Amino acid sequence: MANIRALVAGNWKMNGFNASLEMLDELASGLREGTASTCDVMICPPTTILAAAANQVPGSGILFGGQDCHEAEAGAHTGDISAAMLADAGANAVIVGHSERRADHGETSELVKTKAEAAHRAGLMAIVCVGETEAERRAGDAVKVVSGQLDESLPDKLTASDTVVAYEPVWAIGTGLTPTAEDVAEIHTAIRENLIARFGDDGAAVRILYGGSVKPANAVELMGVANVNGTLVGGASLKAEDFLGIITAYRP
Ligand code: PGA
Predict the structure, then answer these.
(1) What is the pLDDT of residue 3?
(2) CATH code linked to domain 6-14+21-29+38-48+62-69+79-250
(3) pLDDT of amino acid 36
(4) Is there an atom of ligand 1 within 6 Å of 235 CB?
(5) Catalytic residue among 98, 100, 120, 132
(6) Residue 59 class from Cβ within 10 Å (0-12 exposed, 13-18 middle, 19+ buried)?
(7) Annotation marks residue 105 as catalytic
(8) Ligand 1, closest atom to CA 236?
(9) Is the CB of 234 under 6 A from ligand 1?
(10) What is the 3-state composition of the chain as percent helix, strand, coil, each rounded to the nearest 5?
């Protein structure tokens, strides 16, 4: 098995103003105390404060990401932001296909794929999100749904350093509910098999994050599951103390 360095990424969603950037100072000082030695740490703030965030904590090692991008590099797309613009603002990565984008904006997997390709063209890591709804899980279709989303959302060419997969069951996002460790293991193993079948050695080394109601209290159990190589955190990434508590799950 590839030796995979974990990634703990915080998705601030539509939360955060300039004043919220104080959190980054607390996070950076927590990391300086050695908390992050075993994993990569990323914050995905709203685009309006991305550049300020990236400039706030130089030398901290914290990575930054956008929460979405347009599939084109530039043009007449009012209100949209391209991957190249995110890179220009200091981003290292961009989340694409988050279930809130899929649900609120009708984004299809085909569109998500073009966004991931745009991220790669801009030199950004694409964090591609997949996950089943509650009804799909109840119908016993979770593995089938997630595999289908992967087949359609991932670019045809990727590497272990330019792409991350985030498994986020829709019913676990922001609800306080989480799947059991066995359910997470089943899906993450299926995702790994899918990635290896399609991308070989790179597929074996792509990071697969779990996301959905991760908190300091459940991070150790969830992060200890086979083929879980980190986490995408929403609510608990807004407070440095909680986020550091999750990062600490990776201490040896
Ligand atoms: P949550 O969100 O941690 O608040 O459940 C996770 C996500 O949507 O990335």
Answers:
(1) 84
(2) 3.20.20.70
(3) 55
(4) yes
(5) 98
(6) exposed
(7) no
(8) 3
(9) yes
(10) 50, 15, 35
Domain ranges in the chain? 6-14+21-29+38-48+62-69+79-250
Angle at CA of residue 165, ends 170 and 230, nearest 5°? 90
Contacts of residue 19, defined as CB under 8 A and 6 or more positions apart, other chains included, come to: none
pTM, 2 dp: 0.98
* CB atoms near residue 78 (< 10 Å): 4
pLDDT score, position 228: 97
* Residue 178 Cβ contacting ligand 1 at under 6 Å: no
pLDDT along the chain (252 residues), means of 10: 86 95 95 78 98 95 97 98 98 98 98 98 98 98 98 98 98 97 98 98 98 97 96 97 92 62
Ligand 1 atom nearest to 174, measured from its CA: 5
